[in-house]
């Protein structure tokens, strides 16, 4: 099977799994349930649950205990996008080539669908205790909540949302993305290893690997922001139009591409380190 075919098959498996954790669209709160399902099923690469499952299997994980965490991670990621698109934040009308949740269901329902997804994520992840009651499951829950929180993704979003009076320094930009984008990507790799009972030094290497690809992912996002059209990207707003500091404003496209190549090499070395 080619890489592309394998990726498609694995992505489809994850989508199937996700649907088993999504709510039925019934009851007086039906509208928000529809908005939740619309948001989760509106496409997406499913990178985080994929990474979690890959690290889980790579280190010998065989059961299903990772599955509630995979679904919870994608729910948290989806809530973050739904809220990021809101009028109070980026005010985006399109994502993944489709109307954003608030553009379809209205702003109030967009806020509530995000809130609902965040709660559903933890309810789902806590379901792992029905399969396995171990300190490791509790630790995984702690990592998930921490990395999604004020010292992780939300913290990064706060920095991103604050008005930029002066351009950010490279250190500030990296710290912001490390939290905003990197935290969930790192948590995905770490939780997969943890659920598979991988030893501590392996978890640390997997964390390093994910930190490198997380940063590369963000730099590529900045490159695409200036090299692709809105139609190609399937989303409307552009950081350049918003006058934000990016890897492009700091380094230019060529240097940014070079940074991506270096980070990918470093990530490769880190993952090889897990196999020593
Ligand atoms: C609202 C608390 C809160 C947080 C929002 C991640 C985030 C924080 C906002 C997204 C802004 C953004 C476009 C960041 C660039 C990198 C990124 C995380 C892109 C979206 O992730 P993908 O490419 O999305 O994995 P798909 O569509 O594949 O699910």
Q: Can you describe what's shown?
A:
- The chain is mostly helical and 276 residues long.
- The chain is 70% helix and 1% strand.
- The protein has twelve helices and two strands; from the N terminus they run ααααββαααααααα.
- Helix 3 (47-58) crosses helix 9 (170-195), helix 8 packs antiparallel against helix 9 (170-195) and helix 9 (170-195) packs across helix 10 (200-227).
- The longest helix is centred in the last third of the chain and has 28 residues, at 200-227.
- Bound molecules: geranylgeranyl diphosphate.
- Residues 44-45, 47, 80-81, 83-84, 96, 153-154, 157, 180-181, 218, 221 line the site of geranylgeranyl diphosphate.
Give a concise summary.
This protein has 276 residues and is an all-alpha fold.
Widest sheet: strand ordering:
1-2
Shape: globular
Share in β-strands:
under 5%
How many DSSP helices? Answer: 12
Overall mean pLDDT: 93
Order of helices and strands: HHHHEEHHHHHHHH
Molecules bound to protein: geranylgeranyl diphosphate
Largest sheet: 2 strands, antiparallel
Bin the helical content: 55-70%
Residue ranges: pLDDT <50 for 5 or more in a row? none
Give the terminus-to-terminus CA distance: 27 Å
Q: Rg, please? A: 19 Å
Oligomer: single chain
Structural class: mainly alpha
Number of strands: 2
